[in-house]
Design brief:
Layout lengths: L21 H11 L12 H10 L6 E3 L3 E5 L3 E2 L3 E7 L7 E9 L4 E5 L11 E2 L12 E5 L4 E2 L1 E11 L3 E13 L10 E4 L3 E3 L23 E3 L11 H11 L2 E3 L9 H5 L4 E4 L4 E5 L2 H6 L5 E6 L13 E10 L6 E8 L10 E5 L4 E5 L5 E5 L6 E8 L9 H11 L8 H7 L9 H12 L10 E5 L18 E5 L8 E5 L17 E7 L2 E2 L4 E9 L4 E10 L2 E8 L9 E4 L2 E12 L5 E10 L3 E2 H4 E4 L6 E4 L3 E10 L8 E2 L10 E8 L3 E8 L5 E9 L2 E8 H6 L10 E9 L2 E9 L2
Parallel strand pairs: 2-11, 6-7, 12-19, 20-27, 28-39
Antiparallel strand pairs: 1-4, 3-9, 4-8, 5-6, 5-10, 10-11, 13-17, 14-18, 15-16, 16-17, 18-19, 20-23, 21-22, 21-24, 24-25, 24-26, 25-27, 28-30, 29-36, 30-35, 31-34, 31-37, 31-38, 32-35, 33-34, 38-39, 40-41, 41-44, 42-43, 42-45, 45-46
Helix pairs in contact: 6-8
């Protein structure tokens, strides 16, 4: 409530042009200017003109004072109020008028008989009781019974029908009868907190035995101060949104904190019960042995200034508590979604003198013993292992669509999980941090892997990034039943899959490549085709590469590059997502992988999907998780019947002869000289695909040739298998 300014009487000067007062005017002006503030009274432009034309200057003011009337019966009439004219002459014609209004809604209550224009509501004053004409001090009498409250009078003084001056005056009608407490002198409690209203003898939650002659609302406190809601209103509102109660200093009424409440330095205001609440801490229990507890009963929720109009009374009371201070704190940490216990979560408590840490066991249980006798502690629950657990590219899909406004994340707990870089907001940096974790280029991010919130906190409908709602340290009163459980949130795990079974669809989509054989050092280009790619939002996989050296990835219809790829221990880790669902025709090239062969190798023997370090999966929309299959199909052209050129050629000692059979079959390989003489014959059953053997020149020279070969000599070799025959020539050196 705004307390109106209380005016003081201020002297005014006037100038009478008689040829003798000029020095007096100057002297008086210098003297009074030491005491009169600038613009202390209004000066009419008309008055200045009047001085020039008629030889007289009219300056005047009205002095009033703030009045307080005490009403014994909750309403009052017959109050006399005054206003005094300053710096007017006895020869002046003075006419007063007034209007009384309620400043809250400007409702007219009473006005003078000469007030114009006449209001449409309110009572007209009694002309025989009011003194308004030709008086330096006007007064009025309030006729109607007025209830308790604040009122305003607007006075207007007209001088010589030429000059008018106005001023507002305020008055209060207050209840001067204190409420009557009806309290129990002593109560028993097993609760950790106690409310002042608990001492009232009322028989129901909505009624009170304590009463007042004027007010139906009764308020209860443990001090002679109420919370000062007029200051820091936005902070009060945020505090109530977070805790469902207000914390204030019982000595001043100023806003306080939850920590001060737990340390017995602040009371809480519970608006639904019109009462303050005090924590029964060890300190409170000790103080009760030395001093009394007072309960104050109020009939008005009004902050007192230096005056007290009997708006509260109090009685001394006592309470008996079975609560004992001891040295144990215990609880459980469980996954917020699945309620499964979280093992090895680090729980840290800090008192004034020491800090202790422990870890939860397989049941999520922890406990502490306190040795310094503190009655409040701060407690924190975090875990910095299992970083990748529960985090997949689907979480990136959800975060990206939230940022783009495609599908907002409404759960405050999921928003909290999305803050990977711990900057109290969701940005593209969080997506980048999760991508690096999935790809294995980073082992952690700036936030903790897990954080614990006290179980039962209701953040629904709230922005968890306001007012440090995600601060991991919480104050805890140290009492006999110090049990605190934690809801553990896996940071990065937006869909809360870390400790829950997440079903997959029966559908399977495939990555398709064509098998091929490569020689050591040969460049390998592997187009990766898609099959059943419909409404795909993203995916991930780990591809093992045996005997291949990764070079690059080139996106085709999928917009991917090396930022979506990382190589970890001869495995390609792949993570990709799209803001919109994408669909492609079967056999469309999605992207191309480029390698170099470390040795002679077939793709079938080199490439395979593995389940470590990430699962291989793709997503249809934001909910359906699809199985992923790598399909390596045969290269029909590679298995055509073929006799390859021997290597090396020419040769002196040993050469290799290779040939390809379209299927496992009998074959015959013969070597001839230029005369057509058969030098050697090899027969056997070959494998499907490439076959090879080594030919030693010594066999040709000594076993099959009667005369020594001259240098160089041309030989022929012929392959026969089924209906297929092929001939090639080679050179042998001396």
């Amino acid at each position: 409530m705004q307390v109106p300014h209380k005016s003081k009487y201020r002297p005014m000067l006037y100038l009478k042009k008689d040829g003798h007062s000029y020095f007096l005017l100057v002297f008086s002006f210098i003297f009074f200017s030491l005491f009169i503030p600038i613009n202390a009274y209004p000066v009419s432009p008309y008055a200045n003109n009047h001085s020039a034309e008629k030889g007289n200057s009219i300056t005047a003011s009205i002095s009033t004072r703030f009045r307080v009337f005490e009403a014994e019966n909750c309403q009052l009439s017959g109050m006399k109020l005054r206003a005094k004219a300053e710096s007017c002459q006895s020869s002046d014609k003075l006419i007063w008028k007034y209007i009384i209004v309620n400043p809250g809604d400007d409702e007219v209550i009473q006005y003078s008989y000469n007030y114009t224009p006449k209001p449409q509501s309110g009572s007209i004053g009694d002309n025989s009781l009011d003194k308004l004409n030709q008086v330096f001090e006007a007064n009025l009498i309030v006729l109607d019974e007025l209830p308790l409250g604040e009122y305003k009078i607007s006075w207007t003084l007209t001088i010589n029908d030429e000059y008018s001056v106005s001023k507002d005056q305020y008055f209060d009608i207050v209840d001067n009868t204190a409420p009557v407490p009806e309290l129990y002198q002593s109560i028993n409690t097993n609760n950790q907190s106690i409310q002042a209203r608990d001492f009232d003898k009322g028989e129901c939650d909505d009624c009170t035995a304590s009463n007042d002659n004027c007010s139906d609302n009764i308020y209860f406190t443990f001090s002679d101060k109420l919370p000062d809601f007029e200051n820091n209103s936005s902070r009060w509102e945020k505090q109530f949104s977070k805790y469902g109660k207000y914390f204030f200093d019982p000595n001043t009424g100023a806003i306080s904190t939850e920590s001060a409440y737990f340390n017995s330095l602040a009371d809480a205001w519970i608006p639904e019960r019109n009462t303050t609440e005090r924590l029964i801490s060890c300190e409170v229990l000790n103080d009760m042995k030395n001093e009394d507890l007072k309960v104050y009963v109020w009939d008005e929720f009004k902050i007192n200034d230096h005056k007290n109009y009997n708006n509260f009374s109090y009685e001394t009371v006592y309470f008996n508590s079975n609560i004992e201070c001891n040295s144990k704190i215990e609880g459980y940490a469980k996954d917020i979604n699945s309620k499964r216990p979280i093992k090895d979560m680090s729980i840290t408590i800090t008192t004034y003198e020491e800090s202790q840490s422990t870890k939860t066991d397989t049941n999520g249980y922890f406990n502490f013993n306190i040795t310094d006798g503190a009655n409040t502690v701060s407690i924190e629950a975090i875990k910095d292992t299992d970083w990748i657990k529960g985090i997949t590219t689907l979480d990136i899909v959800l975060l990206q669509r939230h940022l783009l406004g495609i599908k907002k994340i409404n759960s405050p707990y999921k928003l909290m999980a999305g803050d990977a870089n711990n900057d109290d907001k969701i940005t593209a940096s969080d997506i980048l941090a999760l991508r690096k974790l999935i790809l294995g280029s980073k082992k952690s991010f700036k936030n903790h892997s897990w954080v614990g919130l006290p179980a039962g906190m209701n953040l629904q409908g709230m922005n968890p990034f306001d007012d440090n709602l995600l601060n991991n340290t919480f104050a805890l009163s140290f009492l006999s039943s110090n049990n605190i459980d934690f809801d553990a949130i896996k940071i990065g795990d937006i869909n809360q899959s870390a400790n829950a079974f997440v079903p997959r669809d029966d559908d399977t989509i495939s990555l398709v490549i064509t098998d091929k054989t490569y020689r050591q050092g040969e460049f390998i280009e592997v187009p990766v085709l898609g099959r059943d790619f419909r409404s795909i939002s993203g995916g991930q996989f780990a591809l093992k590469t045996e005997g291949l050296s990764y070079i690059s990835t080139i996106g085709n219809v999928l917009p991917i590059d090396d930022n979506n790829i990382n190589i970890v221990d001869d495995k390609i880790i792949f993570s990709w997502n799209s803001p919109r669902d994408l669909s492609f025709e079967d056999e469309t090239v999605l992207f191309t992988l480029n390698f170099r062969a470390k040795k002679e190798i077939r793709l079938r023997e080199s490439l395979s999907l593995v389940g470590n370090p990430i699962s291989s999966e793709f997503y249809r929309g934001t909910k359906n998780i699809l199985n992923l299959k790598l399909s390596i199909r045969e290269n029909d052209a590679e298995y055509a019947f073929n006799l390859l050129q021997n290597t090396p050629n020419p040769f002196k000692d040993i050469t290799q002869i290779e040939f390809i059979l379209p299927k496992a079959d009998e074959f015959k390989l013969c070597v001839f000289d230029i005369t057509g003489k058969q030098l050697i014959k090899i027969a056997g059953k070959g494998y499907k695909g490439k076959n090879s053997f080594y030919l030693d020149s010594k066999i040709l020279n000594h076993k099959n040739v009667n005369t020594r070969l001259d240098t160089p000599h041309m030989l022929f070799y012929r392959l026969t298998s089924g209906n297929n025959t092929a001939v090639k020539r080679m050179m042998i050196m001396q």
